[in-house]
Amino acid sequence: MNMNKLLILTLLLFASGCTSQKPHALQSKQAASGDWSLPYGEWSFSFVTPYELPSEVLHARVIDTDGYLYTFNTLDSTSRDSESVDKWTDVAFGGSVIFDKVKKPPQYIVFCWESYIDQQTYETSAVFGPDTWLRMKTPADHRWSNGDPVWYDNITFGLSPGGKVKVWFPDVAGRPSLAVKPLKLRTRSGKALTLCKDYVVPGGTFNVIPSTQDFIKGKTYPYGNWE
Known about the structure:
The chain has helices at residues 3-15, 29-32, 130-137, 210-216, and strands spanning 43-50, 55-64, 69-72, 79-81, 101-102, 106-115, 120-127, 154-160, 164-169, 178-179, 184-189. The radius of gyration is 18 Å and the shape is globular. By secondary structure, it is an alpha+beta fold. The chain starts with a helix and ends in an 11-residue tail after the last helix. Strand 6 and strand 7 (120-127) form a beta hairpin. Mean pLDDT is 87; it is low at 1-20.
């Protein structure tokens, strides 16, 4: 099954209203061609925003390499990165993870999020391939201070004004995060929303917090370089 067919089937699956893990696998040919079991059991995903430009993720769904759908109505908090003020830090990482975990690497993720500064609901989707899965299965060429291997077991999504999204693997303290390049990455809003149209709150969910109002005063949107 090629990636285009996977995405079509994914959208049909979402439209069917599934709320739990799908019992029958939906795999791409690439995913079915290898064993993508992870040596550490589960990987996690996190969301982070510039410190004074917060957003909140409301809902997420993941299809793993075994083809199973995970639906997350309860998510870990979206973190505000104190080191990312007018641009992303090179050591971006999210907070602690309790809920946002999956057993096999991701074929596909879609998540719904709202930006305080934009007062806008966004829908971001990403398709991942073997390069990402292999990186998740392979230890880094360096180790923790206690000698344990370093695994790239977390994918962090950076959310910024205008629906801009960056993706990283966080590394150990002091080492830059590794950029993750999805096969496809797309963010929708407004009338283009599909899944996330059900998560729009009329009139917007958030009030701009005072520290954000102070930060943007006299500055030009999007209040930093988020490329």
